[in-house]
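A.,

Following up on our hallway conversation. Structure tokens first:
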């Protein structure tokens, strides 16, 4: 199947019919319009929010534009003048009658007094006017509000570069985010029968150049919509899945005792993905691995041939030949047959290196998901192609098919963006080098790296490891990808079983507001693929019943998030079976008693 990269055409984003969609107000004739594909349309597609576009370039807004819709998003910067008094009044009238209004346009100078009043704002200038400012920090001021409820970690968000803002005073609104000087950057309030959410930081903040999606505020972006939207409200986002992945690069998993940590993870409901060295297991270790697989307690991915020896790329002489790969896949098959293990369908390539010559053997065995983002033929230390995967063009978090010659492979990837972004040095706009040792300082994607017994410490730093695991998990859940983390056997071997229990307990305690579900990585990959390959074509409410028409292909059952409470702080799931083509789901619009 052809991949679906981040696209710079609205035609690539399927719009939805029905009275439960949101309306996105744009002006395609203006120079800021192309910014929306990263800031807005990528996010709407990723969160599975049914939407349609009202383009000021093709016509003015009318009351009919918003009839029955759940919310209106003013997504584009500098739209105040293009809306004019008539367009602004149309939006405010619909909001007062019950529609949610979420404005990302921080250029408030072009909006009238009625708009500022509806948002609960007054100008900060001496004459009462809104003036421009800038900030390089956003801070959460109130995490008791439904919009910021998931912000149970670090409240200060450092932006990458100074970002434009509007300076105003919140006179009758709840301030949820502020800049470094305490000026409101996000406010929310009720307005008539509806609700208004107004951002005072430029929507450029959602570009990776400034801050970007997946860096710690996606939940606020999303929950501003789910709070404001008229209920019921439906979306097709990822459920809150969490998984662990472990790599045995050095062949340290040999005997059954080396895999005892898996039992502790199982106690907490986790089914880890174990990437193992195919020549290292003893008879005792093999029996343990077989039992774990048979019991559904672990997934297994061939990772290395021998300690620190590539299985899917090559050696110091270069890439393995097709003939050599036939030998290697035969050995993989023999090993897995003896273990009675069906391999994970997620390619776990040591040092992120794999060869185009490995593709036929991988595809033949159904191994067509990728846990990293590299293209074939790129060893770790070589230049890598930035292929800007969906949904945000980010090489850190991605659900997307790889480009040719790897177009059969789908990346299901959540490598902690603050770490991976810092580890890339760009050679040009499309190619970069990784920092050869990987992450550094606090910016590591391995939850144990640098925190176990070794050069820095004489004892394992369990509390710090738990904080890192919680940070990784929180970011993945808040961005609606998936949570969890990765580590390696040469770090994990230092932890005893009770230390693993303590680490998991502490990490869970650091996520008091996040409900999540441990899930196998293969299932998460199937779900992510099904989410990407389906769309809400129509969503309607009639006489207390919601009807959703889904189109595409889902290879696993999909869950729809259904919000029925006014605050949007609670949801339930409605589930549809796997399907190809079209599936209609119908359910009650009311909150179950």
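Then the amino acids I'd put at each of the 593 positions:
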């Amino acid at each position: 199947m052809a991949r679906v990269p981040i696209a710079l055409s609205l035609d690539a984003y399927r719009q939805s019919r029905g009275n439960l969609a949101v309306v996105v107000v744009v002006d395609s004739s203006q120079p800021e319009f192309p910014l929306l594909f990263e800031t807005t349309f990528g996010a709407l597609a990723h969160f599975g929010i049914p939407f349609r576009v009202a383009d000021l370039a093709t016509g003015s807004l009318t009351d009919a534009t918003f009839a029955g819709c759940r919310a209106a998003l003013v997504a584009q910067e500098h739209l105040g003048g293009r809306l004019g008094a008539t367009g602004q009044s149309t939006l405010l009238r619909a909001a007062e009658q019950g529609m949610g209004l979420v404005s990302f346009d921080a250029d408030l100078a072009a909006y009238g007094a009625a708009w500022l009043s509806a948002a609960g704002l007054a100008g900060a200038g001496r004459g009462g006017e809104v003036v421009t400012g800038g900030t390089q920090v956003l801070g959460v001021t109130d995490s008791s509000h439904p919009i910021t409820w998931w912000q149970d970690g670090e409240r200060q968000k450092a932006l990458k570069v100074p970002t434009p803002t509007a300076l105003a005073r919140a006179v009758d609104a709840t301030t949820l985010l502020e800049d470094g000087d305490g000026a409101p950057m996000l406010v929310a309030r009720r307005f008539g029968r509806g609700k208004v959410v107004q951002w005072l930081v430029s929507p450029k903040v959602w570009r990776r150049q400034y801050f970007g999606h997946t860096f710690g505020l996606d939940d606020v972006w999303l929950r501003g919509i789910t709070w404001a939207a008229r209920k019921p409200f439906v979306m097709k986002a990822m459920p809150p899945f969490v998984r662990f992945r472990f790599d045995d690069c050095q062949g340290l998993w040999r005997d059954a005792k080396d895999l005892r940590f898996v039992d502790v993870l199982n106690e907490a409901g986790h089914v880890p993905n174990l990437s193992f060295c195919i020549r290292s297991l003893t008879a005792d270790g093999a029996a343990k691995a077989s039992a774990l697989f048979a019991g559904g307690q672990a997934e297994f991915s061939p990772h290395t041939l021998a300690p620190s020896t590539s299985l899917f790329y090559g050696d110091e002489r270069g890439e393995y030949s097709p003939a050599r790969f036939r030998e290697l896949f035969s050995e993989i098959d023999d090993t897995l047959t003896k273990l009675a293990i069906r391999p994970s369908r997620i390619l776990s390539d040591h040092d992120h290196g794999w060869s185009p010559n490995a593709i036929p053997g991988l595809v033949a065995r159904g191994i067509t998901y990728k846990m990293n983002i590299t293209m074939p033929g790129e060893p770790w230390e070589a230049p890598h192609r930035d292929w800007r995967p969906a949904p945000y063009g980010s090489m850190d978090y991605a659900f997307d098919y790889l480009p040719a010659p790897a177009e059969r492979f789908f990346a299901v990837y959540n490598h902690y963006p603050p770490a991976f972004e810092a580890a890339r040095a760009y050679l040009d706009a499309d190619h970069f080098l990784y920092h050869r040792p990987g992450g550094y300082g606090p910016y590591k994607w391995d939850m144990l790296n640098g925190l176990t017994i070794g050069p820095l410490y004489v004892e394992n730093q369990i509390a710090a490891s738990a904080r890192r695991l919680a940070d990784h998990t929180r970011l993945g859940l808040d961005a609606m990808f998936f949570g969890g983390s990765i580590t390696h056997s040469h770090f994990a071997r230092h932890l005893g079983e009770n230390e693993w229990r303590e680490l998991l307990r502490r990490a869970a305690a650091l996520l008091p507001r996040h409900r999540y579900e441990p899930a196998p990585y293969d299932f998460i990959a199937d779900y992510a693929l099904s989410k990407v390959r389906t769309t809400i074509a129509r969503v309607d409410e009639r006489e207390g019943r919601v009807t959703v028409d889904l189109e595409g292909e889902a290879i696993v059952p999909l869950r729809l998030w259904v919000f029925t409470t006014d605050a949007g702080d609670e949801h339930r799931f409605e589930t549809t079976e796997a399907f190809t083509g079209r599936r209609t789901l119908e359910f009650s619009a009311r909150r179950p008693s």
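DSSP finds 13 helices and 30 strands in the chain. Curious whether your intuition agrees with the design.

B.
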